[in-house]
Predict the structure.
Amino acid sequence: MDRLDNTIRPYAWGSTTAIPHLLGVEPTGEPQAEMWMGAHPGAPSRTLRGPLTEVIDEAPEKELGPAAVAKFGPRLPFLLKLLAAGAPLSLQVHPDLAQAKEGYEDEERRGVPIDAPHRNYKDANHKPELICALTEFDGLCGFRAPAEAAGLLAALDVDSLKPYVDLLHAHPEEAALREVLTAVLSADREEMAATVTEAAAACARLGGAHAPYADLAHHYPGDPGVIAAMLLNHVRLQPGEALFLGAGVPHAYLNGLGVEIMANSDNVLRCGLTPKHVDVPELLRIVRFEASDPGVLRPEASPDGEEVYETPIDEFRLSRYALVAGAPVHDLTLGTPQILLCTAGSVQAGEHALGPGRSVFVPAGEKAEVSGDGTVFRATVIA
């Protein structure tokens, strides 16, 4: 096993206290948004053998196992994170695999620089993801039923929103959601800013189901994404609950600390709540315009104590163990690569003692025994 030394990303939306509190260190006063665990080239974990990217590049079949290399290629197919949102992230959506390949090849063909602010596709991979709450965690996930969204907007009694209310009532589901999102994101920016300001005041006055959108407007005054967000389901996860976010599902994380795992990709199309580029035509090509239940996931327990968060993709598999002092050692040895992350208590992973926020990389086939009194998350792949 390799103890991991991980990079913390200081994105502006990050909490200043959540990750330091978990790690048991003093806050710096700066936002600490994400701690990355894995072999993403942007911030690979460091080991005593070198950066994890280099460790894997030198012997991919030894580190990842032949089955994982055959299925996903010679790279770790997932990225594990601690995510600490102190303010709302951008409203966003991710492409499916075919859309990502097509979009990436198109931008490469047109010579769009990979670091250009208007570039949508940084790679040719999809980016399904799972967020598991460690604290209460607020987010937006998937479209509400159009009639429900219409009721939320109508209650604001804002004249400039009434055409959207009518659209949501007048069309079939897919057309209604498409037309309203298109109209919101394509509207004159000054006029929309005035609408958002009026809507935000009404949200603050009404409270209840409208309160999250008043907070969004506080962080992103005048942003059309505030109105777009009202088309989505608001979800509050309790610790241990999770959300799976597949391709085409608009979403945003609002507040809280969680363990996030995703396919190893940077492809994001933004819908709002951001000063960054919003490519409306490409966004409309990617979004799945269908109302859906957010689908809160709870782990399914197996006889050996593993609690698995079931998802429909193979690039990652996330589970957790609630370890009890004095209980038998758990043998987690697998033929696929693993990252083990302690989030509470004290865990012994092989020769490594792990406290909260500490992690190890386990090469494929490497003996992996864990014990202790705490919680450990296990990230691997299905190969």
Remarks:
- The first strand starts at residue 2 and ends at 3.
